[in-house]
Design goal:
CATH architecture of the largest domain in chain A: 3-Layer(aba) Sandwich
Strand content of chain A: 25-35%
Number of helices of chain B: 16
CATH topology of the largest domain in chain A: Rossmann fold
Number of helices of chain A: 10
Radius of gyration of chain B: 20 Å
Oligomer: heterodimer
Number of strands of chain A: 10
Distance between the termini of chain B: 13 Å
CATH superfamily of the largest domain in chain A: P-loop containing nucleotide triphosphate hydrolases
Largest interface: A-B, 30 and 18 residues
Order of helices and strands of chain B: HHHHHHHEHHHHEHHHHH
Strand order of the largest sheet of chain B: 1-2
Strand content of chain B: under 5%
Radius of gyration of chain A: 18 Å
Helix content of chain A: 25-40%
Chain lengths: ~250, ~350
């Protein structure tokens, strides 16, 4: 079953086309990697789908419904959740309150009876290392990433976007994060992850989408895309050579 | 908080319900008996007390917007003035009772809050503050120019709430209003609505991604805060008995802002606690340095800068750091209460 499909999705900022007619799809149970050089438009694409920055043209179909341009809060209720590249949750709230916010507002009223208990379960699920009463502005990056993940999971998503969740992690932390992502997938959550770390992509993703200068240059199984000469060229070949990459 | 509710004794339960710490209640009692104790039983000192309680109430409602959803309503005193003029005009022209006039003032201000909330919806932080400020300036301009309605700068005479030269009944009424305003605001922050306010104030994107609809919460925050301002405006009109457009001036908002920020953003109680010593100090300075007009505004600025640098969380942060985390059982109870939330 296809959980997410984009058709000719385009996002322009004035004269700049950040995402150019990208069509792609995600199957249920997939871990799809969204890759591409820096500035390729990966985060913009994700923002356009999730509603933070509605697309200029094109269509988004989520869980079989047309969701183009819906606000993030509506997408959240539909079962789409996301983490942020630079996780800054609610700095003055405690860890527990952070997660509870999503538990309270991310679900339909009445679905979750005890928000605090549900949030504690989420914190446990992501192995949150320190006490739940810590004010979140005191956390370090690794803790913030886990907190953001717990917050994203608290709204019981069916589809989860992870924006560079693993960047800046050490070798050991990377391994833990990998296990965690697999654990989330095993709980029936489909995942789209923006990622640069090849080790993670090759080990986790079963499909990849590669974009460059806002245009999709490859989509397919991890193997296919990783061996695609266009993709290799995008990463290793000279910069700015769009025509050669698109040819 | 919830799991300990059953074991509380009635006194602590009452404190929990009213969101007061034992120290807070004690201070309130002191404020209540103050007008009977010399030297505070002199009329001019009771007038100071009233203006302090007024600023305190305004600071609570102001902080409800500025501290929680992080939008500084620079037109706040103009909204208060709108409430004051609405009440005054209804009472003078239509012969309404001043009590109903105060309520009508609250309604008018709430309507204005709805409008400002809607219009500033797409704007962030400083831009929303500017727009609210322009609204305030426009309201003040209207009050000055619509001479047939408001008598403009000549001032409008208004019936007082109590037909007595004494200030004492006004003081107790205002004190009661202050307590009700504090409890209302604090109660809202304890509900899910309060969580939404803090979330959209601290990180709009994460809040929206977590499923919070900013439209509803931002507008309802504005409406409640402005409604309180309007009712307070009604009190103002029917206490001083004379109304000029001056009360809508931005410098009045800055006074409220200074008290709220020095008291502690987002704490609600900080501004109320600091208002009394603060206003007394300012009045003393004003009367002893009368050859330096405007010196109090300079002092507001200096104090604000110092607070921003050393204690961004204001007096509330100072208090939480040095008093609340004490090891002494008795003191801890006094400062925190049994079930009081330390937020």
């Amino acid at each position: 079953m296809i959980v997410l499909e984009t058709k000719e999705l385009t996002k322009r900022f004035g004269g700049l086309t950040a995402v150019n007619a990208v069509s792609m799809h995600i199957n249920e149970g997939d871990i799809v990697g969204l890759i591409g050089p820096n500035g390729a438009g990966k985060t913009t694409l994700v923002n356009a789908i999730a509603g933070l920055n509605p697309p200029t043209s094109g269509e988004v179909i989520t869980f079989g419904q047309k969701t183009t341009g819906l606000t993030p809060e509506k997408m959240c209720r539909k079962g789409l959740s996301r983490t942020f590249q630079i996780p800054i949750p609610f700095p003055k709230m405690t860890v527990l309150q952070n997660v509870m916010t999503a538990a309270i507002f991310g679900n339909r009223p009445g679905v979750i009876k005890d928000h605090a208990a549900h949030s504690r379960k989420m914190l446990e699920f992501v192995d949150f290392p320190i006490h739940e009463d810590t004010v979140s502005e005191q956390l370090n990056t690794v803790q913030l990433k886990r907190l953001d993940l717990a917050r994203a999971l608290a709204s019981n998503p069916k589809l989860l976007f992870l924006d560079e969740l693993a960047s800046g992690l050490s070798e050991g932390e990377l391994k833990d994060m990998m296990e965690l992502i697999l654990k989330i997938r095993d709980h029936g959550v489909t995942i789209l992850m923006i990622e640069h770390i090849m080790q993670l992509i090759m080990n986790l993703c079963n499909r990849l989408v590669c974009i460059q200068f806002g245009t999709k240059i490859a989509e397919g199984t991890t193997e296919e895309v990783a061996n695609d000469p266009k993709v290799t060229k995008a990463y290793l070949g000279g910069s700015g050579n769009t025509e050669a990459a698109a040819a | 908080m919830n799991n300990s509710t059953q074991t509380l004794n009635p006194f602590d339960k009452l404190l929990d319900l009213t969101c007061f710490t034992p120290l807070g209640l004690l201070s309130l009692l002191v404020l209540a008996i103050l007008p009977m104790v010399p030297p505070f039983n002199q009329e001019y000192l009771i007038r100071w007390l009233i203006s302090a309680a007024f600023i305190a109430s305004m600071a609570i409602a102001f902080d409800f917007t500025a501290g929680l959803i992080n939008i500084v309503n620079f037109g706040y005193c103009a909204i208060m003035g709108l409430g004051a003029y609405t009440s005054a005009i209804l009472v003078e022209r239509l012969g309404l009772s001043p009590w109903l006039g105060m309520l009508a003032g609250g309604l008018a201000a709430a309507g204005m809050g709805l409008m400002i909330g809607m219009i500033t919806l797409r704007l962030r932080g400083i831009f929303a503050a500017c727009l609210a400020w322009f609204f305030g300036l426009a309201l003040m301009g209207l009050a000055t120019k619509l001479v047939w309605l408001t008598r403009g700068p000549m001032g409008m005479r208004v019936d007082r709430l109590f037909d007595t030269p004494s200030n004492v009944p006004f003081y107790y009424l205002l004190l009661a209003m202050m307590v009700i305003i504090y409890i209302t605001c604090k109660w809202v922050t304890r509900t899910h609505m309060g969580v939404a306010f803090m979330a959209i104030g601290q990180n709009m994107e994460a809040a929206r991604t977590s499923g919070i609809d900013p439209v509803f919460y931002r507008v309802s925050n504005f409406v409640l805060s402005c409604a309180i301002g309007g009712v307070l405006g009604g009190f103002y009109a029917h206490y001083y008995g004379i109304l000029t457009p001056d009360i809508m001036h931005t410098s009045k908002t800055v006074e409220v802002l200074a008290v709220a920020y020095i008291g502690g953003r987002g704490s609600l109680w900080g501004g109320a606690a600091i208002a009394f010593p603060f206003i007394f100090a300012m009045e003393l300075i004003r009367s002893s340095l009368s050859d330096l007009p405007g010196i109090n505004l300079v002092l507001y600025g200096l104090l604000l800068i110092m607070v921003m640098i050393y204690y961004p969380g204001g007096f509330a942060q100072f208090f939480n750091t040095y008093f609340r985390q004490t090891g002494n059982k008795m003191a801890s109870y006094l400062f925190n209460g049994v079930a009081a939330d330390t937020k």
